[in-house]
Design brief:
Helices cover about 30% and strands about 20% of the residues. The protein has about 450 residues and is of the alpha+beta class.
């Protein structure tokens, strides 16, 4: 099964000067990255893609930071990883870079042009402000209020704007097109403007999310600086599953508060599974007297394939929860059986699905998938089959007398191989079962 770990960490205005002055910073940043990988069960070969946000300095100095981080990663792990610098733009104090970190993947990186979408908001904001100024002046005239000709200042449209920034003030993000194994993902990361703007003017983050949707982004991750739930028609907000916020409270003890400034938004039409556990705080011991490492925790997720769920032999109760596409699907109707099999991307014919549905149930009573998860210990793994241990489609049919022959052919197919299982299911389009799916099905069919 292909897996990928994805994470993002706002490291609080780190620069090359900071790295050189406080080597402890580099050590703890790499240790923090490794903790995010370990929290997701990653081993030395698990691919990952990560993003360090709020990196400051010139392009050259940020590249120097990448080299330092790469050397420290090799020192702590004995392995290599790629560290790359990407300018986010911005003006003056808003100018930053993002460092991408990856291992075990092929990546094509491009700019995530949030500024292009934000420029539409700026133009709309200006027009709304002009309209508000006109209404204000008309109100004064209609009331017959006296206009002081020597007044040093008078109403201007700028005071009616929701945000008084031009497009170049905003930062872009970085977008990576990732290939790992046979899978691919599009991930965008960004550091949105501070909460005084992003949390008060909804259009700022809305524009970023709209751009991600327009670019068919699978995962939008980063510091969005906005509170409250804001899952959209296109994305699910994984922060709803977290038990804490993503930044430290302003207290002597480094504990996480409830504000979820950092987010992981995932495309609703995703063709993969994704889990996101609680953010990981990485604090510097107070006795070092070196100041705060960062006020943000690491947000992280594990991406993995949708697993095969054709539990013929395991229908009586040996199905791991991770293999099921849903916990409440009644597997007696063709569309519901199809939805319980998320890895079958090619549609099943109605007769195929209904034929598969019957042997999935050990009685004629419609049973939800959830009823298969907690079987009594006394239930045998495969009550639908006789002890004849069938290894061909003919033997399988004879051992399952109530199973219609719709999707199975009596072709003598060897059900102990992936190819044989595919041959025994002729109405499932070729390629509808992956090799892994077929092997899993073969294991299920043969006790």
């Amino acid at each position: 099964m292909n897996e990928l770990i994805v994470f993002s960490w706002n490291v609080l205005k780190k620069s090359l000067k900071h790295f050189r002055a406080t080597p402890d910073t580099v050590t703890r940043l790499i240790a923090g990255i490794l903790s995010a990988l370990e929290a997701n069960g990653a081993d030395i070969g698990t691919p990952f893609v990560g993003f360090l946000l709020e990196i400051t300095g010139s392009d050259r100095s940020v590249q120097g930071m990448c080299e330092i981080l790469k050397a420290e990663y090799r020192k702590q792990t004995g392995q290599d990883a790629d560290f790359e610098a990407h300018s986010s733009g911005g003006v003056g104090a808003t100018r930053e870079s993002i460092i991408t970190i990856s291992r075990g993947v092929r990546m094509v990186t491009e700019e995530f042009d949030a500024r292009g979408e934000l420029s539409k908001f700026v133009a709309s904001d200006k027009q709304n402000a002009e309209n508000s100024l006109t209404n204000h002046n008309n109100m004064i005239a209609n009331r017959g209020l006296r206009v002081r000709k020597k007044q040093r200042s008078k109403a201007k449209s700028a005071i009616f704007r929701a945000a008084r920034h031009e497009p170049d003030w905003y930062r872009n993000g970085v977008m990576v097109n990732v290939r790992y194994g046979n899978d691919s993902l599009r991930i965008a990361a960004i550091h949105a403007p501070g909460p005084n703007l992003s949390s008060k003017v909804a259009e700022v983050v809305d524009a970023i999310v709209a751009k991600a949707s327009d670019q068919n982004v699978d995962i939008l991750i980063g510091d969005l600086n906005r509170q409250g739930a804001f899952g959209t028609a296109f994305f699910d907000d994984l922060s709803g599953k977290w038990s804490s916020g993503t930044s430290f409270k302003k207290s002597a003890t480094p504990t996480l508060g409830k504000s979820r400034w950092d987010r992981i938004l995932v495309n609703k039409t995703r063709a993969f599974e994704i889990d996101s556990a609680d953010p990981i705080p990485v604090a510097r011991p107070a006795d070092l007297n070196l100041g705060m490492l960062t006020d943000h925790a690491i947000v992280h997720a594990r991406v993995y394939d949708k697993a095969v769920t054709i539990p013929v032999a395991r229908a009586a109760g040996t199905i791991p929860n991770s293999l099921l596409g849903s916990s409440d699907i009644v597997m007696t109707e063709s569309p519901l059986v199809q939805s319980a099999m998320p890895s079958l991307t090619s549609p099943l014919a109605a007769t195929d699905a209904s034929s598969l549905a019957s042997p999935l149930l050990s009685s004629s009573t419609p049973a939800p998938v959830s009823s298969l998860l907690s079987p009594p210990p006394s239930i045998e793994p495969n009550p639908l089959m006789t002890p004849s241990n069938p290894t061909t489609s003919e033997a399988l049919l004879s051992s399952m007398p109530n199973a219609p022959t719709g999707p199975l052919s009596a072709s003598g197919a060897d059900l102990t191989t992936a190819e044989g299982v595919q041959a025994a299911l002729p109405s499932v389009p070729k390629g509808g079962l992956t090799s892994m799916d077929a092997e899993e099905l073969a294991i299920m069919l043969v006790p």
